[in-house]
Structure formats: C-alpha cells, structure tokens
C-alpha cells in the first residue's frame, strides 16, 4: 500500500473513531495534502456552497519554553491571527516561548509540521502538552481541523471539540491570545 492511501485510511479511521465516541462533525472534505492554513483556505473556498462561510480555520502552534520547566504548548488560534509570543509568555507565566522541534512534535504528538491538530492529543498519554485555545475560535459556528491527516479536513462545532478534550481527559485554557502588532499599526501610532 502506498503512503498516501495509508494516510487516507488513518484519516477515515479517525473520523469513525470520533463518531464511535459520540463526537460528531458536520462535514468532512478530502483534498490535496496541505502544509498551512493558506493552502487549506484555498480548498475550503471551493466548498463554500456546501459548508457555508461561518467557519474558522484553526492554526495549531506547537510551542515550548526555551528555559525553565521547558513545558510544551499546543496553542490554537484562528488562521489570520499572528500571535505575539512575547506577550503570550507573560500571560501564561512561562519563560521565553519558541516553536518546538519536529522531533519533539513527533515524540509527543506523533506527527510532523503541517499536520498537527488538536486531535493529535490522543497520542499525548502523559499529558505533557498544555492546551491553550483562543476565545476568538468560538466566534464561528464551525471549526476546521485535520483528522490526523492533512489531506482531509473536518468541520465541527465548539461543543464537539470540548467533548473531545473531555474524552481525552484534558485540561485546557480558553482566553484571549495576544496578537502581534503589524507594521501598519505601529506606523499609525508613531504618526498620531
């Protein structure tokens, strides 16, 4: 069996796994493997007649502390949000945050960059990854995530994501994730 077919089977099996555990999704679409939110958005636009436009493409940031306890975090925000890691560090009470290595991602979440999603938490049996959700995610009716394969996307409601986290017995934080100022915003401040 080739690698692509194996990945499709993993994605489909995971969708069945969710349904078996009473975690329901509204839509599932199969598409070309994508490595980022922008690529996903291009595919989702093709399905707007079907899924509508009240959905949030979820960006999953796998971060770690540089020093200190060296805790890891899965921070999930809407795709358009550019997270201010310096301010997030202050809010979480951590040392400096940086992106975790692909090796650490593989070790804790059994995935690779471009394929990480909230669902990879099922592999973190020791609960070493802290989960942080941006409250802005819940401004949309549906949330889009990859079901362990970045060639598929499922769209589900907030209550189903919370059911999944409860099913995994995960604690999580929901709050306002700080956004980085853009150069345009900084220019306006300086000229005001």
Summarize the structure.
This protein is of the alpha/beta class and 192 residues long.
Give descriptors for this structure.
single chain; 192 residues; alpha/beta; YbaK protein; 8-stranded mixed beta sheet
Major β-sheet, in short? 8 strands, mixed
Cα distance, first to last residue? 62 Å
Q: What is the fold named in CATH at topology level?
A: YbaK protein
Radius of gyration, in angstroms, nearest whole number:
17 Å
What top-tier CATH class fits best? Alpha Beta
What does the model show?
With 192 residues, the protein is an alpha/beta fold. It has one domain: YbaK protein, CATH 3.90.960.10. The protein is built from 7 helices and 8 strands. Strands 1, 2, 3, 4, 5, 6, 7 and 8 form an 8-stranded mixed sheet that branches.
Describe the protein's topology.
Elements: H1 3-20, E1 27-30, H2 37-45, H3 48-51, E2 55-65, E3 72-78, H4 85-92, E4 97-99, H5 102-109, E5 129-134, E6 142-145, E7 152-156, H6 158-167, E8 172-175, H7 183-191
Parallel strand pairs: 2-6, 3-5, 5-8
Antiparallel strand pairs: 1-7, 2-3, 2-4, 6-7
């Amino acid at each position: 069996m080739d690698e692509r077919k194996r990945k499709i089977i993993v994605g489909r099996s995971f969708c069945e796994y969710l349904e078996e555990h009473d975690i329901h999704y509204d839509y599932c679409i199969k598409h070309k493997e994508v490595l980022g939110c922008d690529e996903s958005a291009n595919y989702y636009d093709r399905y707007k007649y079907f899924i509508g436009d009240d959905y949030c493409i979820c960006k999953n940031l796998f971060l770690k502390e540089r020093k200190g306890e060296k805790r890891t975090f899965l921070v999930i925000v809407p795709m358009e949000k550019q997270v201010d890691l310096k301010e997030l560090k202050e809010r979480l009470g951590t040392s400096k945050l940086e992106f975790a290595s692909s090796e650490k991602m593989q070790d804790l979440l059994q995935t690779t960059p471009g394929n990480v999603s909230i669902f990879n938490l099922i592999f973190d049996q020791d609960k070493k990854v802290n989960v942080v959700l941006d409250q802005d995610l819940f401004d949309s009716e549906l949330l889009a995530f990859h079901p362990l394969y970045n060639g598929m996307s499922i769209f589900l409601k907030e209550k189903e994501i919370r059911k999944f986290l409860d099913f995994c017995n995960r604690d999580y934080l929901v709050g306002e994730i700080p956004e980085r100022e853009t150069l345009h915003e900084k220019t306006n401040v300086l000229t005001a």
